[in-house]
Predict the 3D structure of the following.
Amino acid sequence: MSWIGLCDFEQPAFRVGGLHNPDRPPNATDSVLAKGTILAEVLLTPSTSDHVILDYKCSGDWPLRVNIQKATCGTFWMYIEQGRYNHLHALPTPLAHFAGTVQISYSWDGPSRLGHLGVYVPATGLVYQNHLDAPRPMPMGALADMTLTQSTRRHCDGLAFFAVSNQVEPLGVPLGLTSGTTVLCKKAPRTVGDLRPGMTVVCHGQPDQQVQWAGSRLRPARGAALPIRIRAPYLGLTQDLIVAADQKIALDGPDVEYLFSQESVLVRARDLIHGPMAMIEMRPKVMRYAHVFLTNQSMIRANGCLTESLHLTTSAQNGLKSQNTMSRLCNVEAHTTQSTPSLRGFEAMTLNRILAA
């Protein structure tokens, strides 16, 4: 199993049997979660005071207090109170004046007596993370209450969602292709879910490259992983392409060269929905996303459209190593640069309007 709770402030859900198993009857919540992850995605704005991101408190048989804040100095605080146990975890970052989206992850593994507090910045691929010693298991009922009961929590306006998993989830690995996506390979097109290390993928504008890693994982289908449908035949698509909102798509042509003096540029899939070529895909609360990691980060053809292969930074890979998750991805050589320039949101929307005219 994986993700069991999701609060998007519209239709929250909590199922001990897993959000991806809607037909499975919900289990009782009168137990503890020995290991798991709380993931929150928030849009930060510069502030002159400390910023409360999420605050939850309940009493009763399984009392729990969860408080996440960002201080003006850039330090993120996570306060956990369970009965007589309380601990304040601090994660210093250089994000004091940062404006943009971050993901905050608190993970715990009771049997291994290890935990992590991490912050991932999708715009840069950077991950900041601290080790935590001997974190306590979490009461399942309190986590369900935090997810489902609005009156027990308060949060900032920029909080897009928070989710609960019963596993230690990786942070900073932006898997963005759905598993049925067809990738152009040297011998024959293959679905991304069928790719294996050693296979050769056709790359745009550079030599073909071998697959170093390919894999998939469930992600909450909100925020950076909100599914976007890009419609065929736009962008050379042979069939519709469904990707995560932050998956980057390549655009080229005379308008790109005139505006940006580049042969091609990258835009996030979310920035294409302001025109006719893309729309938000109404999907379940979780989606299984996949990706392919190549020796050098490159442009590949997915359903005929140019998109980027998985870009993994050194800081994200170090986070995986410390969490002991996705071990095969820990053994590849991380990328230092991206292959194609990326547009900012307003630049992408301007180009989208021009291309749609």
Notes: The helical segments are 140-148, 254-260, 314-323, 345-356. The longest strand covers residues 209-220. The mean pLDDT is 88. Residues 32 and 139 are 4 Å apart (CA to CA).
